[in-house]
Amino acid sequence: MFNVTSNPAKNRLYITLAGHLEGSERREVTRAIMAEVAKLDQRFDIVTDITALHASDQEGFKDLLRAKSALKLKGVRHIIRVVKIPISRMQVERVSEAAGYEAESVSSIEEADRRLDALGLEPPQGP
């Protein structure tokens, strides 16, 4: 099961993944993500709720890596994940590391929104 929505006013993408996602469903998730990202500006933020996601097989890992890499290319800024199942958290952390970005972990979507709101008030970092 999955749900993908966006909030253009906050320039934020929300992804909820649950259960065991099979190959065709993982491809549907990727299409839905790209469709919602098209509604957002560069430097968008992502909240990924994986509180009910079960670990995936090696093919699932590769699909997630492709999707995460595509999001990086599209200009993702901050990523906050909502996690509860430790093995799923470890798998998603491996995907994030392999895709070349960091994500924070929190315990609720509300906490993720508060954190992203706070990050939006911080001055940009970098050269």
Describe the structure.
This protein is of the alpha/beta class and 127 residues long. The chain has a single domain, classed as 2-Layer Sandwich (Transcription Regulator spoIIAA). The protein has four helices and five strands, in the order ββαβαβαβα. The protein has a five-stranded mixed beta sheet, with helices on both faces. The longest helix has 17 residues, at 58-74. It is globular and about 40 Å long. The model has no long low-confidence stretch (mean pLDDT 81).
Topology:
Elements: E1 2-7, E2 12-19, H1 23-37, E3 45-53, H2 58-74, E4 79-82, H3 86-99, E5 104-106, H4 109-121
Parallel strand pairs: 2-3, 3-4, 4-5
Antiparallel strand pairs: 1-2
What descriptive keywords fit this protein?
single chain, 24% strand, five-stranded mixed β-sheet, 4 helices, alpha/beta, 127 residues, Transcription Regulator spoIIAA, 5 strands
Record field, number of beta strands: 5
Q: Mind describing the biggest β-sheet?
A: 5 strands, mixed
Number of domains: 1
How far apart the termini lie comes to: 41 Å
Shape field:
globular
Rg from C-alpha positions?
Answer: 14 Å
Structural class: alpha/beta
